[in-house]
Amino acid sequence: MDELQDVQLTEIKPLLNDKEHDIETAFGVVHVTMRGTPKGNRPVILTYHDIGLNHKSCFNAFFNFEDMQEITQHFAVCHVDAPGQQEGAPPFPSGYQYPSMDELAEMLPAVLTHLNLKSFIGIGLGAGAYVLSRCALSHPDLVEGLVLINVDPCAKGWIDWAASKFSGWTTNIVDIVLAHHFGHEELQANLDLIQTYRLHIAQDINQENLQMFLTSYNSRRDLEIERPVLGINENTAKTLKCPALLVVGDNSPAVEAVVECNSRLDPTKTTLLKMADCGGLPQVVQPGKLTEAFKYFVQGMGYIPYVQLSHLSTESVPAASMTRLMRSRTHSSSSVGSGESVRSRSHTSNHGEGSAGTPEGIDLQDAPQTMEVSC
Questions:
Q1: Residue 252 to residue 236: CA distance in whole angstroms
Q2: CA dihedral in degrees (139, 140, 145, 150; nearest 10)?
Q3: Which of 195, 205, 283, 297 falls between 20 and 30 A from 234, CA-CA?
Q4: Between the ranges 52-61, 300-309, 329-338, where is the mean pLDDT highest?
């Protein structure tokens, strides 16, 4: 937690070359902030925040981290704010129908067209990770890679729905959003961080607009992705086609959801990064670790040279482990400790076993497996 010194949210002043746009799409207007100039045919880095946040409160700590500048010098950055969630957003008119999560994803091609951008590497948190995933499934040609933090590929179950309805009668929306972001341990232990975000959610985000975004997220469909299995469905499975880095803090309430998403993705294109001593906002609490992981991710895609980030402490991401992000993701020597992940890896057997157990005579190291790293 040493990297979390002063959590800076909306008070960060935009850089002189930040340009803000209100872009009209078929599903309404979306607010976008462009930082930097697109570099030739390179993709931009496109971010999408979670509920209760905007691009500043979600990603300022990460993008203003000193070593991140050594990466962003190679890319323009496009920050997308969900409708009505940007700083100073006015309330929606009476009768306004907030876009569904699918419609939020369909806004992104219009954003790229308006800004004359060809493709992007996405970084999304929670609801934003879902939106970026949905966009990648519908428009794979536009998405070159995804960093998905706290992603949940599942629709909200009826038990969760009932619980949220009940909690909505007894708890204010700020507490609901805080419980979405932070686990019980973090809510009790990291009081300064929690208070900072409590005030931000309550004071800086229009509460009616926030309720609409929350309702849209709670009404999401299942992503309906499935892990491709060689010899069975590798050509027909619906899954992400681009490289994906899944990130979750070990104290995050999203751990199970991220493990479930990992079990449905192509293991040869997916890395699961579980961050120790970290809760629901790894990009805020551990920006150094996430910066180095992101560096290796984009290096593996061939976009930036292999340079050491000069200011990272030697205790950030273990170099020997993270270097493997640049290699073929076909073996794993560690596990996040979930029975679901073990079961899902058994599905990668060429024999197509549907059992939850490991098929007899099959060495899991011989089958493609998601690259998993703990740091």
A1: 33
A2: 60
A3: 297
A4: 52-61
What are the structure tokens assigned to 264, written together? Answer: 């449905």
Q: Which of 138, 109, 137, 103 is nearest to 46 (CA)?
A: 109
Measured between alpha carbons, how far is residue 66 from residues 55, 132, 181, 211, 297 in Å? 18, 26, 25, 34, 18
CA dihedral 265, 219, 107, 257 (to 10 degrees): -30
For the chain, the first-to-last Cα distance in angstroms comes to 13
Tokens standing for residue 325 = 């992000």
Interval 239-293: pLDDT, tens: 999 999 999 999 999 999 999 999 999 999 999 999 998 999 999 999 999 999 9
Residue 35 pLDDT exceeds 60: yes
User: Tokens 């960093």 — which residue?
Assistant: 147
Contacts of 11 (CB under 8 A, 6+ apart): none
- DSSP letter string, 177-225: HHHHH--HHHHHH-HHHHHHHHHHHHHTS-HHHHHHHHHHHHTPPP---
DSSP single-letter state for residue 281: -
- 17 and 35 Cβ atoms separated by less than 8 Å: yes
* 341, two tokens: 């992940």
Predicted local confidence at residue 7, as pLDDT? 57
Q: How many CB atoms lie within 10 A of CB 151?
A: 28
**Which helix H or strand E contains 102, and what residues bound it?**
helix 101-114
Of the candidates 186, 198, 206, the residue with the CA atom closest to the CA atom of residue 87: 206
* Gap between the Cα atoms of 245 and 170, Å rounded: 37
**Which two three-digit tokens encode residue 44?**
């931009």
pTM: 0.82
